[in-house]
Specification:
By secondary structure, the protein is of the alpha/beta class. It has a single domain, classed as Rossmann fold. About 40% of the residues lie in helices and about 20% in strands. A 7-stranded mixed beta sheet has the order 3-2-1-4-5-7-6. α6 packs antiparallel against α11. The longest helix is centred in the last third of the chain and has 18 residues. The radius of gyration is 19 Å and the shape is globular. Bound molecules: S-adenosylmethionine. S-adenosylmethionine binds next to α2.
Length: about 260
């Protein structure tokens, strides 16, 4: 289950890749803009402000997230939906999937289906985390795979579920798109107050640790959390009241119908 409050704890750091992604989408007058896996809707609302004449839609499979998003009172149509079942209508000129496709097995096939179904000249903008080999994920895999919970947790440990920027570029140029793909490592400097949990643990509780939490009872979860906290404290030491948390992200912007367009 997604917890909008936990997810929004590092809202500033989490929102930056969204803005960097959308800065590369120069659509002028899109008819419909769809934000897939929109989460708590705060970033979707920025799309409505940027393109006030467009119909803006935010879809997410989590009822908790959509409830939070709808409560914003923004001019956005929010609804519960699974991106795997969703098909773009003929007036979708901008399609955004920010920090969601890492959760969706088979997302490469979805990308090629979407660009085939979008109208020519439409924009697809995707960002996924590329940090599955970072110390945080290695610590998670080590602790989950070696403790008394290993049997329950091993099936939940995902191999890197995303590709690099070059692979997405090859996939989408092969699907007749003009492509702009890149990678960025953000060096997040997270405050580490002495009376609070390790900030990387807090960060992970908002996203990657959710399936682990759901699989363990309260006692096991407390033990697991404490073992992981110790590993994270070694991997990300506190210096001057903060920890340095490098976070790689992968971006791809594709415009459909490359042969019909002169410029990407
Ligand atoms: C890390 S959050 C990103 C939220 C938002 N896009 C943002 O950038 O802040 C991932 C979101 O993807 C949603 N999600 C995961 N799998 C999904 C699926 N198959 N269909 C729709 N939404 C999904 C989750 O419910 C969650 O709200």
């Amino acid at each position: 289950m997604w917890d909008p409050t936990a997810y929004l704890r590092y809202a500033d750091e989490r929102s930056r890749p969204f803005h960097d992604l959308l800065a590369r989408v120069p659509a002028q007058r899109p008819r419909t803009v769809v934000d897939l896996g929109c989460g708590p809707g705060t970033l979707t609302a920025t799309l409505a402000r940027r393109w006030p004449a467009a119909r803006v839609v935010g879809l997410d499979s989590s009822a908790e997230m959509i409830e939070r998003a709808a409560a914003l009172g923004e001019p956005v149509d929010f609804a519960v939906a699974d991106v795997r079942d969703w098909h773009p209508g003929p007036d979708v000129d901008v399609l955004v999937a920010n920090a969601v496709l890492q959760w969706v097995p088979g997302h490469r096939e979805l990308l090629t289906r979407w660009v085939a179904e979008l109208p020519a000249g439409a924009w697809l903008a995707v960002q996924v985390p590329g940090n599955f080999d970072a110390p945080s994920h290695r610590a998670l895999r080590e602790v989950a795979g070696t403790g008394p919970w290993a049997a329950e947790l091993t099936p939940l440990l995902r191999a890197a579920p995303v590709d690099d920027a070059e692979s997405y570029a090859a996939l989408l140029t092969g699907a007749d798109c003009a492509v702009d793909a890149w990678e960025t490592t953000y060096v997040h400097l997270l405050p580490a107050p002495t009376d609070a949990d390790h900030p990387v643990l807090t960060w992970m509780e908002g996203t990657g640790l959710r399936p682990i939490r759901a699989a363990l009872d309260d006692r096991r979860w407390a033990e697991f959390r404490s073992a992981l906290r110790a590993r994270l404290a070694e991997a990300y030491p506190v210096r001057r009241g903060q920890v340095s948390f490098p976070f790689r992200r992968i971006f791809v912007v594709a415009r459909t119908g490359a042969h019909a367009q002169e410029n990407p």
